[in-house]
């Protein structure tokens, strides 16, 4: 494992502690809820557009995926 990677073991069945789950919730609540799509291609295009908007904004990702418990993680 690379020296700059720290594994943080999470309790099982705890999606609220997984930072990516916060990002999925943000995307669902801000981009994907209460919408209808003409077909699968339209749904996929909307999903990809939202993903690009979110992940290209570093401050947004940092804010949405903030996990205070990660501050306590230490490298070995």
SSE topology string:
HHH
Structural class: mainly alpha
How much is the radius of gyration in Å?
16 Å
What helical percentage do the residues reach?
Answer: 40-55%
> Which geometry do the CA atoms define?
elongated
Largest sheet descriptor: none
What quaternary form is this? single chain
Number of domains: 1
Q: What percentage of the residues does DSSP assign to strands (E)?
A: under 5%
Instruction: Provide mean pLDDT, rounded.
Output: 82
Q: Number of DSSP strands?
A: 0
Q: Counting H and I runs of at least 4 residues, what is the number of helices?
A: 3
* Spans where pLDDT lies below 50 across 5 or more residues: none
Distance between the termini: 11 Å
How would you summarize what this structure contains?
Residues 3-43 form the Tc1-like transposase DDE domain. With 76 residues, this protein is an all-alpha fold.
Description:
It contains 3 helices and no strands. By secondary structure, it is mainly α. The chain has one domain. The termini are close together. The model has no long low-confidence stretch (mean pLDDT 82).
SSE blueprint and pairings:
Elements: H1 19-32, H2 40-55, H3 58-64
Domain Tc1-like transposase DDE: 3-43
Pfam families: DDE_3
Protein name: Tc1-like transposase DDE domain-containing protein
């Amino acid at each position: 494992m690379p020296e700059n990677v720290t594994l943080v073991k999470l309790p099982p069945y705890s999606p609220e502690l997984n930072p990516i789950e916060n990002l999925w919730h943000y995307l669902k609540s801000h981009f994907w809820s209460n919408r209808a799509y003409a077909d699968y291609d339209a749904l996929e295009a909307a999903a990809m557009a939202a993903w690009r908007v979110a992940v290209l904004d570093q401050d947004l990702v940092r804010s949405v995926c903030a996990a205070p418990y990660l501050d306590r993680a230490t490298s070995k």
